Amino acid sequence: MSERKVLNKYYPPDFDPNNIPRSKVARNKTFSVRLMAPCNMKCNTCGEYIAKAKKFNARKEDVDDENYLGLRIYRFYIKCPMCMAEIVFKTDPENTDYIIEAGATRNFQAQILAERQAKREAEQAEEEEKSNPMKMLENRTKQSRHEMDMIEKLEELKDLNQRQAHVDYDSMLQRYSRQQEAEEQRQEQEDEEYIRSVFGKGKDSAVKRVRDDSDSDEEVRAKVPPPTEKPTDLLAPAKKPEVPSEKKSWERSLGTLGGAKKPALLVRPAGRSVATNGAGAGGSGSTAPVTAVVTKDTAQNGTAAGSGAAVTGLGLLGAYSDSESD
Questions:
Q1: What digits encode the pLDDT tens for the residues 177-212?
Q2: Is residue 21 in some structural domain?
Q3: Are residues 93 and 138 in the same domain?
């Protein structure tokens, strides 16, 4: 099976290339090639900017009358993508660059020309130094002076390195730490003296520090229950503190009539205790029995005031009114 691309051809052993006639081709024939723009350029016809590395279909030809050290120089023809004007440039093997011949202007051409001019001036200066002996002597003097300065700087660096080589870094760190501790102690003493001077405390006086029980003001403290005297007090409700009650208006006595006997009540309400001030039923007939109605309020007030306090008339009148309401 034959090759699809036919890269190689068969030449028989008795092949003679002289028998093949030469093809009639022009000596400087142009070829169609695909290339990219070598640099940023601007079209002189329409002003269109052509970026570097933009692809074009170009025509290539050899420059017959130019070469550089035996190297061929090629010329390329491309067309502007906007106005289809022809742009021509060629290779520059001397500067490893390209030269635009017609149809466009290269961007940053001024910078390139300035660099080349500076290079030419440097070459001319070197040639002048070689031809002028006095100029050469001056340059040698400057160069020797520069070398001496560099040698002095190197010696200084060597001395500095030798001094640093004998330095003990551990001792330096320890010394620095001791200085820091001494400085901290001095600052603490100054702070304490300032506090004493502000608060007027003496050297012997001790400062009492109050410890905060809690950081929050809203914290509710637990109530301490009162001590119990009997085991049964745990089951009983908590007693409220007794507050002495004030006497009512009708219980406040302004005094009694001197030597007058209190009449006995005609009606004795049910459930009331009656106290007699006589000898009882067996007493003398001349002395009338005096009875007193003891109510709940009067009994409490009587016990608070004392067992020997007498019941006033206003108290009896209040007791009588209470019996009617019942």
A1: 999 999 999 999 999 999 989 887 555 556 566 666
A2: no
A3: no
Where are the extended beta strands (E) located within 218-290?
273-276
Residue 39, annotated as binding a ligand? no
Q: 78 and 84 in contact (C-beta within 8 Å)?
A: no
46 among annotated binding-site residues: yes
CA dist 52 and 54 (Å) reads 6
Q: Is residue 234 part of a domain?
A: no
Residue 276 in contact with residue 290, Cβ under 8 Å?
yes
Confidence of residue 9 (pLDDT cuts 50, 70, 90): confident
pLDDT tens for 86-143 read 999 999 999 889 999 999 999 887 788 888 899 999 998 888 888 888 888 888 899 9
Q: Which residues pair with 76 in a beta bridge?
A: 60, 89
Full-model pTM: 0.36
Query: Which domain does 102 fall in, by range?
Result: 27-108
- Number of domains the chain contains: 2
Residues 44 and 104 reside in one and the same domain = yes
Task: State the burial class of residue 222 (Cβ atoms within 10 Å of its Cβ: 0-12, 13-18, 19+).
Answer: exposed
**CA distances (Å), 266 to each of 161, 278, 292, 319, 320, in order?**
132, 17, 11, 13, 11
- DSSP-derived secondary structure for 282-305: TS-SSSPP-EEEE-HHHHHHHHHH
Which 8-state DSSP code applies to residue 58?
E
Question: Is 160 among the domain residues?
Answer: yes
Contact between 40 and 49 (Cβ < 8 Å): yes
Q: Which residues contact 26 (CB under 8 A, 6 or more apart)?
A: none
